[in-house]
Amino acid sequence: MKNDVGKVYFVGAGPSDPGLLTVKGLQVLQRAQVVIYDALIGPGICGLIPQTAEKIPVGKRSGRHSVEQEQINRLILEQAQKGRCVVRLKGGDPFVFGRGGEELELLLERHIPYEIVPGVTSAVAVPAYAGIPVTYRGLSSSLHILTGHRKQMEPPDMDFDALVRVGGTYVCLMGMSALHEIVTGFLQAGMPTDMPAAVIEQGTGAGQRAVITELALLEKEVSEQNSKLRLLL
To answer: How far, in Å, CA of 30 to CA of 49, rounded?
Structure first.
């Protein structure tokens, strides 16, 4: 007798490089009947989706949401209720600022089978590709993963004083739009002006760019690099 309810796999695709997709993630993806994927999924990963699978983009970019989160949650549920093998393909790791927990709640309410396939988080992989270890004996023994995403131009929700007191390495995902507030917040909280800092764009992809400098100079050097790039284009 056919099972009327399918199963949902939340698969972390990693930051961009298809080589960082886990073996289990690839195995699950190859069995998928429908793949619901984000805008941050790179073309290399998209190329691994089976041709027989239905592909549903639900891409979200900062300030430009093609599908609202509630609709995505409902879509995942509806596809599973059709008895299909559903892969919810998410950039990085599903549970690191990926809203995977929110998407899981509705499935739990309806007793839909699911499985989490963790992915390589960009918070670690992207700095590594730029030659930056996020921990280093004698220098940094802790890692703090933050989000620079903000709503309606509000300042980032960060306690800079507490972060500076704790110490360690700070990785701020989706932080470009709030770069000024982040740099200013750390400096005003007492972070040394010569603290090493970096901005990395298109991490692990072919177009990865990095600006590595001191905290107090970060905004200026990012602006200069962007100006040079515009001239080249």
So the answer is: 7
